[in-house]
Structures are given as structure tokens and as C-alpha cells.
Amino acid sequence: MARKDAIIKVRDLLIEFGNGKKKIKAVKGVTFDVYKGETFGLVGESGSGKTTVGRAVMGIQPLSDGAIYFKNRMAYGMSPDLFKLNIAILKNLDKMKSNQDTTTLRLNTYLEEFKRVDYKYTQSKYYDFKTKTLKEYPDGVSRIIPEGVNLKKTKLVTHKKDANLSFVKVAVKDNLKSLLKILRIQQKTLRFIDSISDWIDIDKELDLAINKYQKETYNLVAGIKELENKIWNALEKMSKIKQDVIEGKSNSVSKFFNDLGTELKEIITLHKSISTLIKMAENEQFINIALTSPSRLRNKYKNQIEQKIQKHKNQNNILMAEKYQNILELMNLKNIQEQIKKSEIFEMPNAKRQRNLKKEMQMIFQDPASSLNERMAIEQIIAEGLDNFPELYKNEDAANAYMEWFNSNEDAKAGTIKRSDVKWKDVKHFLVLQLLTTVGMLPEHLSRYPHEFSGGQRQRIGIARALVMKPSFIVADEPISALDVSIRAQVMNLLAKFQQELDLTYIFIAHDLSVVRFVADRIAVIYRGDIVELAEADELFYNPLHPYTKSLLSAVPLPDPEQERKKVHYKYEPEIEHSDYLVDFPQWVEVKNGHFIYANERELKAYKKAYNEYEKNK
Question: What is the structure's pLDDT at 195?
């Protein structure tokens, strides 16, 4: 399906529960499209966040961040605030800068301790921290560890001596986490500004400048990440060298200090380079903040840029002065954030649009019993939507349909009726009755109450309640999970029938992949709030790539007991599968032909290889 056919667009959906340190991210920046006329399957185990996504799309669940667009108009959430996003990036850069300063002190302390121990055991010299000079030990006793001695028997490796290095490792870990936050915010920002000119009338020069400086900051941050990765790897090597001593695998004191010294020197060099890059990134990020600043803060940033221009002129730095002069001129153009807010697509829905959304978007709930009011008769339950939206039955089309039905009814004793005889309450009753019989129920069921029906019948009533609103889009939240196996097929066939007849679009939520396969055009697999794989239904079943998808598929029971006994179950262990996510961040990428996956560089290479093998053998 063409991209323009998307009826629902979910962008960077974030949903959080709780407050402060107890805050839990139930959905973590999910992005996907649902195309007109398709059934989009959303699959995952209990607690994966699939129902939360469905409720958010319907406007039932408040959004912490992100936006949901319906027919290319904002439905729920809010458009990205470029200024706030850029401020968030700068805050994380500042946090990293502060971390760098503290880490520098710890590295220097560790280096001094390293020198002291090195000189002591290789030259039997005392290294004075204050004077930075070597001295002889006054007792004249040699401290040299001879070559060939098992270093496990010495005191070369102790927890006390590693305290500063342990701090460095924690600091690097914190920096990597900050980098992950920055890169995700930058990717979100770049995705938005890359397409912004399609939605708002923005000055071309301003559009190019915003894209340019956002990408420059992104490249600098990506460079910092590469250096932090190298520091992490060097720290891991140092840990391995020390672990070899603890395990009695090291017999050379000179090699021990040489190997440690090489890695330490590399860490210090990389650390200095990172500090330089952070400073450069902060300078570039200031430009991003200035270009996207709101009107109320614009003069503040203009003044700061004017100061920078004057500073560079005083230093005869003509190129930098011209650069900031160009930024100052761009800031006199229309404010981009205000243009975004005024744009029709990003405009928050007013009361009238919100009301229409409730009519066009409906939901079929997981538990048919609890979703129906026990104190209301079935006719009242189905007609409730018509009571709230009387225009659905108080119209000429509905009146004419009622007249045609009444006059063609062979059992009618009152004869025929004219348009002037039509009463709106009769039209409403007719529409409810017509819909109830369409879902396989009987006319006498109208006066009964929910507790008088089976689970399958109650779900049919729930479907009728949703369809009476004449929606174009329905979220079906596990509509068959609470039903008997024999009833499931009937309900699924009903949903398929109405989709064809009424041109409906579904999000079909389930935890059973075998069920979704037969109803969905495309399937997204969600795990702990992240969509980890998305592909066409058949493609996902014949060529699953993500280990979580494989584990879900292996859990589907086979009808043949012999095959079921022989089947190999795939156990998904994320801590093992994705152990390198700290240094090799995962991203949402397309492997090939609409098959998307959440993976890092290492995994992506393996997935592409597996995909190519599948294509060869197909």
C-alpha cells in the first residue's frame, strides 16, 4: 500500500506510569502506520504494552509524549516541540561534561597510583606524588617481582587499587546511557524536520540551516559514542588482564604493566578527545536552540549570538563571525515552532473534531462481560452511541432505509408508510435491530440483559455497539481471547465480513500469533514497550528474524502430537541475545522490502545474512 493511504500514524508514542524513581515506561517511543482498509496485527505476551498502545490510539490512555494522527490530522498527543527537544539534548551534553570533569580527576589519581605500583615492583623505586620524582627506599630492601613468578601470589591486584578505575567505568556507563538518550532525541528530531516542509510553508534557507546544524550535532554525538565505545572496550581489556592475575594465568610483571599501561594511555587520550567533542557539540547545539527558540526567548538568543559575533571579530576569526551573522539573519525569519503550531495537520483538535473522532474511531474490548453495562438492556447498549450522535439516525438515508424495510416486510399489518409517517425513534430501533441480526442475534434479544448471554454472544453485542457508529477505524483488543475455540472462528469471520462490506481498518491486538496470521495483513511484534519486528503476515511467519518473534512462534502448539513432542522450543534470553546494547545501540531499521526490525549493527548484519539465505531458498 502507498504511504499516502495511511489512516493512522503513530509517532514516537511514549506512555509512562508512576512518578519519580518509580516511573515505568510501558511504551517506549513506538512509531508505525496503519493503512486504509488493512488489518494491522499487534502481537506480544501479557505486559508487553500492546493493549496500552491500542487504548492510546483510541484516546483512552493519556500520552506522556508523541502523537497520533488520524487521516493526516492530529488526533491525540502533541507535535514535537523542537525547542524543548534541543534543550533536552543540551542538558544531557552538560551532564556528560560534568561527568567528564570528575572522571578526569579519577583518571589522574589512578594514573599516579599506577606509576607508584609500576616503579615499586619493576624498579624498586618510591614514586613521590607531590614532587613527581623517584626515590630509593630507605631500608634498601628490593621490591622487584622477578619474571616467572605467578602474580596471583602478589598484591598487584586489589579492590582498593581499582576503586578509581571502577568509578571511571561507572562514569563511562553513565555517558553511554546519556548518549543513547541524546541519539534517540536527535533521531526523533531529524525524522520530524526531514519531512516538515511537506506540511508547513517554511523558508527554504531556514529549513536547510536547521537540517544542517541538527545533523552536525548528530555527527559529533555519534563520534563521541565511538570514542566512548573504545574506552569501554579498553576498560574491559584491563579487567581481563587483572582477572588473569586473579586466576593465576599471569607470570610476567613487565608484561602486566606494559599491557595495562597501553590500555590506560589509550583511555586517557580518548577521554581528552571526548571532552573536545562535547564542547564542539554544545556550541553546535546552541545554534539549534537559537534557531528553534520561541518568540518570547528570541531576543535573549539574538543578544547571545551578537556577543559571539563581536568576540570572534575581536579575535580576527572572520569565518566564525560570518557563521553567527548568518544565524542571526535566519532568526529574523518566521518562527518555525509557531508555524508548526498553526499548521492544520499539527493543530490540536477542537471540541467538534474530538467529538467526530469518537464517532469515526471505535473499540471492541477484550472482556465482553465487563465492557457491557449489566443494568442496561441490549437495545439501550447498542443505541447509546446513536443517542449521543443523533445525526447517525436522524437523516434521510436512514429514514428511507427504514421505509423500504417497513414497506417490504410481508408481516407488516399496518400496510405501507410515507416519509411523513416516519418517526425517528422507529428509525433508531430499526438500525439497532438490523445491526443485531447482522451479527447473528435474534430480535427478541433486544430486551434482554448482558448476563443472559454467553461470552460469544456478548462479544457480538460489543461488535454491534461499535459498528452502529459507522466508524472507519476499529481497535479490536483481543476480541476472541476470552471466548471458546469453537466461537472464535465465528467472531473472526464476522470481523472479516464487516471489513469487506464497510471498508473498515483494524488494529487487531492479540497474544496468539497463529490467530493473527489469518486476519492481519501486516504484523508488529511488541516486547516490553518496544516494537521489535514488523513485516507482512506471511513474511513474518516464514522468515522471522528477531529472537523474540521466534520464541513466540515456537510457542504456538502444533495439532499433531508427534510433531509437537519433536518441536524445538526457542527460549528468548534478552540479557544474552543483546548483551552488547550498551556500546552498540539498537535502532529501528528496514532489513528489506517492508521488513523492519529493532537491532544494532552486529545483529543487523546477521539478520541481513539470514534474510538473503531465506530469499535464495524460497
Answer: 82
